[in-house]
Amino acid sequence: MLVGLLLGAAGATGVAFASPVTLARLTPDTTAQDGGSFNIGLGGIGGIGEPATEGGGTPTGGGDRPPASSATTTTTTTTTTTSSTTTTTTTTAETTSAAPSSSQAAPQAQATTTTPSRAVDASQAQWVVQLVNEAREAAGCRPLKVDDRITAAAKAHSTDMATRGYFSHTTPEGVDFATRMRAAGYSRPGGENIAKGQRNAEDVMKSWMNSDGHRRNILDCSFVAIGVGLDTRGWYWTQNFGR
User: Fold this and answer.
1) What Cα–Cα distance (Å) separates residue 48 from each residue in 17, 94, 198?
2) CDD domains attached here (predicted)?
C-alpha cells in the first residue's frame, strides 16, 4: 500500500542547524494532517528531510512482534532536526480505537479501558530499539546500547508533549533535547527523532525510515547509545541518541 509523506526540509523550511551547546532558532514544528495519509513535518536537528520515494523500506526484525493496538490510523506526522553534534525527529498520527467485542451476553455491561498499559509502552519502545539496530547492522554501523539516562530523557519528553498537548523538539519554555539529555546525566547528546500517532513500533520506524533526515539520524555511525520514550496518550514517540 502506498503511503504518502509530506516532508519538511531543515534549511528549506527556515530551520537553523543546532548544536548541543545552543539550539539555533527553529521555526515552529507543524503537524499538517491529511486524512488517511502519513505526514512528515520538520526533520531532525542537523538532518535534511526530502520527499520520500515509493518503496522506502521498514527494517524487518527477528523474534515476536509486540501486539499492536487495535486501531485505525487516520493521520501521522513526523519531524526531524539534526546538527553536526545533535539530531532530532518527529512523527504524528491520529487514530480511532475499535470497541472490544464480547463473546457472550452478560447481564450487565462491563466497562473496558482502552488505555494501553505501561507494559505496552515498554515493549513497543524496546521493539523500536531492535528495529533501529537491525537497520544499523544492514548499513554497517555498530548497534546502539540502551542507556537509562537517555531513556529517562526520552520518556520525559514524550510525557511532557502528551500532558501539555504540543509536538516539538523544543518545549514551550525553549528547552531543547541536548539540554534535556544533559539534565538526565548524559553529557554527549547526539540527536533526537520524535513522532506522534503511530500505534506500534513498525509503523513509527516505517515513517522515520521513509524520511531522509530521520533515517540519517538512525543510521549515524557516530552514535553509540539510544533511549526511546512512548506515551500512549496520543502516541507520542521520542528517540534520543548519544555519542
Assistant:
1) 10, 25, 22
2) CAP_bacterial
